[in-house]
Amino acid sequence: FTCSESIPLVPVDVAPSEALAQLVESGWMLVGLTAEASNCGVSAGALWKFDLTRPKLAMVFGSDRDDGVPFPEEVRGALHAELTVPMRATASRGSLNQSCSVAIVAYERWRQLSCHGGH
């Protein structure tokens, strides 16, 4: 899959909350991916029920374990939506690691784009 837009880069010495603010100012929609289906009364939607074909969509990956804190509060406040990969978890395998989550999100975006006649 190809990227039809340039992606703004933020210097590494910028705080995550400031980097996210810069993306929002540039018109990007921030979607957080978390291992937790719900946290503090906020429900994360299923990844495949969300329209990943929209332009200027930035994924923010949270903690890769269900520890009650998927995102720092200043990061969570910048998010437009929170998603999760719903799964039947056992006590020893409660969540996916980051690389698996990134792969699933990339595949799901590709799948949705393919179904909509995208690239």
Q: What key phrases describe this protein's structure?
A:
single chain; 119 residues; alpha/beta; 4-stranded parallel beta sheet; two-stranded antiparallel ribbon; 6 strands
Describe the structure.
Helix content is 27%, strand content 17%. It contains three helices and six strands, in the order αβββββαβα. A four-stranded parallel beta sheet has the order 4-6-1-5. A two-stranded antiparallel sheet has the order 2-3. The chain starts with 15 loop residues before the first helix and ends with a helix. The model has no long low-confidence stretch (mean pLDDT 78).
Nearest-integer average pLDDT? 78
* Radius of gyration computed on alpha carbons: 15 Å
> How much of the sequence is in beta strands?
15-25%
Return residue spans where pLDDT drops below 50 for at least 5 consecutive residues: none
- Structural class per helix/strand content? alpha/beta
The number of distinct β-strands equals 6
Oligomer state of the chains in this structure: single chain
Termini gap = 6 Å
How many separate helices? 3
How are the strands of the biggest sheet laid out side by side? Answer: 4-6-1-5
Note the run of SSEs as H and E: HEEEEEHEH
Shape: globular
Helicity level, as a percent range?
Answer: 25-40%
The major β-sheet equals: 4 strands, parallel
